[in-house]
# Entry
Amino acid sequence: MKKVALISLGCAKNLVDSEVMLGYLQQNDFTLVTDTQEADVIIVNTCGFIQPARDEADGILTNVINIKERRKDIRIIAVGCYVERNSQELKKAFPEVDVWMGVTDFDKIVPAIEGIPFKSSTVCYLYDHKSPRILSTPSVWAYLKISEGCSHRCSFCAIPQIKGPYRSRSIFSIKEESLILVSRGVKEINLISQDSTYYGRDLGHSDGLISLLRELIDVNRLEWIRILYGYPEEISDPLLEIMAEEKICSYLDIPFQHADPNVIKAMRRGMDGRSALMLIEKIRKKLPDIAFRTSLIVGFPGEGRKEFAHLKNFIKAAQFDHLGVFIYSPEEGTDCLPLGSSVQDRIKQERLEEIFEIQANISYKNNSKYFGRKIDVLVEGRLQDRPDVFLSRARFQAPEVDGVVLLNTASDTSNVVNSIQKVEITDTDVYDLQGKLNP
# Structure
């Protein structure tokens, strides 16, 4: 019975694909291990979105090949976005890898391991409720991928050429999977997609996400529904209305990317800083307790001092609860590649750090408003190195990317794990909160 270890790199969407592969492996009686040193087969699910992700994958593949040099009998399989995008270069750089698979055949992982020929699909793999899946997240929450691919044409992004156009799962399939997840104890589902607000348009539905949310609200024992990765232009009044429902977390992850009109135009995005601030104000009026996360890019071609100042002023005005920043990475095949890289790497890094400093002050201020308040949190489990501390999250904290609420307790309260509890916030920091269980 072969032992298989799987290393998943990149985003949450990649993680779901990895979980499905694990499901197929378990279904076919493979033994799943976490230690690559004891594995007979090592699978690396790669990310190829930007250069730092590819560098990470190169490092992991190098480490895995070092294991193979000591144990000639192990089998290495590389899959995912990086393979889909740069397979020829990777095959030359890492000839020791036994099997290469892109993003079309995650469901063929078993024949790939066993060396059985299979017919490769022509479209990016998209699982459904019938696909086996092993959750690697805490048992109380899960990601639920509602689509694959992207039909936007942002000038800096290679996702459409890697994964193809947007393809939605059916509402029936998504709801069926949510029922399965809830039966396993999941209380929070996080809807993920390249653009969740685009959901259903390829199926002819103009209000697909709203229709989906209506169905998920009716799922018994599902407590929290979180929408991740929405485009600002697609945040409609009907969507905001349904987000007022109790089960739906008052949380939006909207990647604005920049604020300067000229940079936004070059990025081929639709909303500059002025329009974005108007949208944010509108959303906050309709949903006063909304938490905002956004993603931004620094160092895009043409971002001079004036454009960067515009971006900084936008951040200060928007007062985001959570913010991620990426340094612009020139990507082969993207429409903005001919623009070159007019911003020096040193300046890109300085701008990144400056934005982080601005946001740290904003985050600390935003977190401070919770001091002394009683809020609901989802308790995930104990910290491994501190068994007297529970790890939990509030509605305004998405898993893995935002802060957490740490619960200090000396009493035997293990029954709170995998439950929603009322806690009082006793301390705040830039990213995390501390609290105590409310008696």
